[in-house]
Amino acid sequence: MFIISAPSGTGKTTLVHALLERMPELVVSISHTTRPKRPAERDGDSYYFIDDPAFMRMLEEQAFLEHATVFDYRYGTSRTFVEDHLVAGNDVLLEIDWQGARQVKRQRPDAVCLFILPPSYRILEQRLKTRGETHATVRRRMDAACVELSHYDEYDYLVINDDLHFAVTEMESIIEAARNQYRLHKPYFDWFIKQLMEEASIIQ
Question: Is the model more confident about 82 or about 188?
Answer without folding.
Answer: 82
